[in-house]
Amino acid sequence: MTSRKIMLLGEIGVGKTSLVNRLVHGRYRTDYMPTINVEIYTYNLPETDDRPAVTLLIWDTDGNFGQTIFSSVYLKNASAAIIVGDSTRPATLKAMAGLTTGWREARAGRPLSLLLNKSDLFPDTDTPELPEELRAETTEPLFKTSAKTGENVDVAFHATADAILRRGL
Questions:
Q1: Among residues 99, 38, 18, which one has the least CA distance to residue 66?
Q2: DSSP 122
Q3: CA-CA distance, 163 to 79, in Å (whole number)?
Q4: Which residue has the higher pLDDT, 29 or 143?
Q5: First and final CA of the chain: distance in angstroms?
Q6: How far apart are CA 99 and CA 96, in angstroms?
Q7: Distance between CA atoms of 5 and 24, rounded to whole angstroms?
Q8: Which end of the chain has fewer CB atoms within 10 angstroms, the N or the C?
Q9: pLDDT value at residue 125
């Protein structure tokens, strides 16, 4: 089985750890413990007709890194990034735009997915107003997710893994 490294990026409190816990352990925890530096999770995707079996090494990063993450050793061998924002906090969506630009510059050609988390707290019929930087040129997949309900969590991580393998990374 092959393994691929995925960076989980975003501001403090957007739900990165909650998303990865929902994916890996199938649960949502209410006892919040902030991530310090980085925590690494593994998630095995079974083989399908379209994809070989793959282990995702998910690097859940501390939201304090900001743009400095792109000059750190943590990015070494990263195949993709998932950048998370909080649907209810516009400032985190602005930070998503900066992280998206940083990822494109640091790891050109590597897949990237954008997650608007905490969709359970945002009206179903609405999508948060995205910053101009994300609206103008973003072709990356955009998922409305909820770590609490599990909405689109598996879908987002599986789609990112598929993008990695499609590009032969």
A1: 99
A2: S
A3: 10
A4: 143
A5: 14
A6: 5
A7: 15
A8: N
A9: 60
